[in-house]
Design a protein that fits this description.
- It is built from seven helices and no strands.
- By secondary structure, it is mostly helical.
- It has one domain.
- The protein is globular, with a radius of gyration of 14 Å.
Amino acid sequence: MLQQRVEDLLTSGDGTVHPQLGPVLEALVKVEYPISILGWLRKSESVTLLRELAQASKPITHQMLDQLPPSRHLYYVRDVLMHTGVLEERSCTYPGGRWLPVPGLAPPPRGPSTGGQERLRQHNISNR
């Protein structure tokens, strides 16, 4: 059921998963607790933006996202796209800091981090 829901979300106008969004599909369906993703799909406004990006006929880039009105949903989706490798990492300053993209999705491997950064990520998850 999760696989089909995520595929439906990320399907482009030609009926296939948007070519850039394969890593997002893979990450979402491989989480340890699928129920968290099902809930996120049902209630998050970020899902609407992901769907719109999937149905767009142009490549998904930071420049494309920069043209959209700033919102926490845009910041969240940008983080999902960077987290899964769809977009290259770039330094982003968001009001309230960066969020770990999706409940249950492990953070990407990175260099040494501080406990304070991890606590911030966990705090932002619990407040979503």
